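Possible regression after last week's pipeline update?

I re-ran a chain I had predicted before the update to compare outputs. Posting the input and the new output here so someone can diff against the archived version. Not blocking, just want to make sure nothing changed silently.
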Amino acid sequence: MYQRKLEKDIRCPLEYGMELFWGKWNSRIICVLAALGTLRYSELRREMGNITDAVLASALKGLISNGIVARRSYDEIPPRVEYSLTEKGESVVPILQSICRWAGVFYKDDGDMPMIQCRKCDHRG
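New output (post-update):
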């Protein structure tokens, strides 16, 4: 009979939150949609910059499954799909803005990667 070697880990609310919206791409997707509203995939891809289609599709899938982003498809030719933040997604924006402000205060410029204030993070002050 199988016996677990370690006790089952207790899930912390902070871990849940970090899993949902943390990471380079998830937070950027949230910020872009918060700043620009509902976008088609190609518009979102253009705003994201140097992200591959596979990574964007995967990140969107995760954000949709976690209730952060809504996907709406229209029965048209050619097909049209739009992405927007849900109410849950909108509630994350002030948290990300606070992190952005904090990082701007405490970031140490290493010369190779200077930090500039992202216009998308700062759109609501």
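Follow-up from reviewer: compared with the archived run. The radius of gyration is 17 Å. Marking as no regression found.
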